[in-house]
Specification:
Blueprint (H helix, E strand, L loop, with lengths): L4 E2 L10 H11 L10 H20 L7 E4 L2 H8 L4 E3 L8 E5 L4 H4 L9 E4 L9 H8 L5 E4 L13 H10 L3 E5 L11 H4 L3 E5 L10 E5 L3 E3 L20 H39 L4 E2 L10 E5 L5 H10 L2 E2 L1 E2 L3 E2 L2 E2 L3 H5 L4 H4 L3 E4 L6 H25 L1
Parallel strand pairs: 1-13, 4-5, 4-6, 6-7, 7-8
Antiparallel strand pairs: 2-9, 3-10, 8-9, 11-12, 12-17, 14-17, 15-16
The structure holds 4'-deoxy-4'-aminopyridoxal-5'-phosphate.
4'-deoxy-4'-aminopyridoxal-5'-phosphate binds next to helix 3.
C-alpha cells in the first residue's frame, strides 16, 4: 500500500511509544489494586503514579483525579444536579451549555430536559458572553459547561473570563478540555474550572480511558457507577491498570513536548492554510479570526460535499475527516457550524484537517498535492453537474 499521511488527530492520536511501553509493562502486573498483598500494591502503585501524572497535566491535586472510561463518561459524571461546593448541599437548578459542545455534553448528562439551555456563539464560534450573563440571571445555582477548544474548528474559548462570570453568580463551571489537553495550557486554576474532562487517546494514550478532574472543594454526590468503592467511590469497578498507566505516560510525554510541538504544528498548519487559500481562493477557513488550537483547520470549498471529498482524499492516501459526525458514509449537518451561522450548503463541505506531533513537512506536501488533485476534479464534476 502506498504511504499514507494521517491528518485526523482530533478524532484520535497514535499511541505514543512511552504510553505503549507503560501499557505493556502494566499488563504484566497480576494484582487487583484493591488487594493488600504485594501484587495488589504493585497495581495500586501503577495507578497512583499515573494519577499524579494526569494531575500534573492540568496542575491539579492527584486526589481530585477520577479515572473513567473516557471523556464521554467524565462528562456524564460531571453533568449532574448533585454537585456540592464547600460542603453546601443544594441541587443545581439549571444547566447552561454552549451551542457547540460535543454530543456527550449536549446529551445533558443527568439533568432533566426542562432544566437545560443552550447558549449562542458568535460567527467565529466564541461563546456570546452577553448570552451567558443573561442566562445566569435566570438561575439560582447554575452549572455551566463550556469546552476549552472545539473539536471541529479548534476555536479556543476564553475560559478564564467565562469562569469569572460564572463564579460571580454562584455558578459551577465544567470544562470539556479534551481537545486542549496536551496542546495548550490547561492549568485548572488558571482556567478557573471547577470540573475538567480529559481523554487519554487525544494525547497519545490508549483509547477507552479518561478522567474527570475536580477543584478541591467540589464534590459529586451521585456517582454514575456504584459498587466496590473504587476511585473514592466516584467510579466503581476494578481499575483498568494498563490503560491508566498508558494515560499517565502519555500525559507526561505530551506535557514535556507541548510548547515545542505547538509551535511546530502551528507553523505547518499556517503554511497549509496559506497554500490552500492560494490555490483555492474561494476556500473558507472556519473560526480563522478567533484564537484556535495550533493543529486544527476546518475548511470548506463552495460546491463540494465533505463525504465525497473525504473518500477521494482517502483514495489518495490521506486520512482527513468531516468535522461533524458521520454515519453510514453520510455527513450529518454540523451543529457547530449551524451555531456559527454558516450556510448549510457551505457547512456540508467542511473538511477537518488536524495535525499532531509526528506530522512532517513532507506530510503537508502530500496533503497539498492531493488537495489540488481532489478539489480540482470535484470542482469540475460540480461545474458539469450545474
Ligand atoms: N469531548 C470532545 C470535545 C471530544 O472531541 C471527544 C472525542 N471525540 C469527547 C468529548 C469524547 O471523548 P472519549 O472519546 O474519550 O469518550
Amino acid at each position: 500500500m502506498a504511504e499514507r499521511a494521517y491528518f485526523d488527530w482530533n478524532a484520535t492520536a497514535p499511541l505514543r511509544p512511552e504510553a505503549k511501553a507503560a501499557v505493556v509493562a502494566s499488563l504484566a502486573l497480576t494484582g487487583n489494586a484493591s488487594s493488600v498483598h504485594a501484587e495488589g500494591r504493585a497495581a495500586r502503585q501503577a495507578i497512583e503514579a499515573a494519577r499524579q501524572n494526569v494531575a500534573a497535566l492540568v496542575g491539579a491535586e492527584a486526589k481530585n483525579v477520577t479515572f473513567t472510561s473516557g471523556a464521554t463518561e467524565a462528562n456524564m459524571l460531571a453533568l449532574t444536579p448533585s454537585l456540592e461546593v464547600g460542603g453546601r448541599k443544594a441541587l443545581r437548578d439549571k444547566l447552561f451549555l454552549s451551542a457547540i459542545e460535543h454530543p456527550s455534553v449536549r446529551s445533558r448528562g443527568r439533568f432533566p430536559a426542562g432544566s437545560v439551555e443552550e447558549l449562542k456563539v458568535t460567527n467565529e464560534g466564541l461563546l456570546d458572553l452577553h448570552a451567558l450573563r443573561s442566562a445566569l440571571a435566570r438561575a439560582e445555582r447554575p452549572l455551566v459547561s463550556v469546552m476549552l477548544a472545539n473539536n471541529e474548528t479548534g476555536v479556543i474559548q476564553p475560559i478564564a473570563e467565562i469562569a469569572q462570570i460564572v463564579h460571580e453568580t454562584n455558578g459551577i463551571l465544567h470544562v470539556d478540555a479534551v481537545q486542549g489537553a496536551g496542546r495548550i495550557d490547561c492549568d485548572i486554576a488558571t482556567l478557573g474550572a471547577d470540573l475538567l474532562s480529559v481523554s487519554s487517546h487525544k494525547l497519545g494514550g490508549p483509547q477507552g480511558i479518561g478522567a474527570l478532574i475536580r477543584r478541591g472543594d467540589v464534590h459529586i454526590a451521585d456517582p454514575l457507577i456504584r459498587g466496590g468503592g473504587q476511585e473514592r467511590s466516584l467510579r466503581a469497578g476494578t481499575e483498568n491498570v494498563a490503560a491508566i498507566a498508558g494515560f499517565g505516560a502519555a500525559a507526561v510525554a505530551a506535557n514535556a513536548a507541548r510548547q515545542a510541538d505547538a509551535l511546530r504544528m502551528a507553523a505547518l498548519r499556517d503554511t497549509l492554510e496559506a497554500r490552500i487559500k492560494a490555490s483555492t481562493p474561494q476556500a473558507v477557513v472556519f473560526g480563522a479570526n478567533a484564537p484556535r488550537l495550533p493543529n486544527t483547520s476546518l475548511i470548506s470549498v463552495p460546491g463540494i460535499k465533505a463525504e465525497t471529498a473525504i473518500i477521494a482524499f482517502d483514495l489518495n492516501g490521506l486520512a482527513v475527516s468531516s468535522g461533524a459526525a458521520c454515519s453510514s458514509g453520510r455527513v450529518q449537518a454540523s451543529h457547530v457550524l449551524a451555531a456559527m451561522g454558516v450556510d448549510t450548503d457551505l457547512a456540508r463541505g467542511a473538511v477537518r484537517i488536524s495535525l499532531g506531533w509526528t506530522t512532517t513537512e513532507s506530510d503537508v506536501e502530500t496533503l497539498l498535492t492531493a488537495w489540488n488533485t481532489v478539489i480540482s476534479s470535484l470542482l469540475k464534476r460540480h461545474a458539469n453537474a450545474a
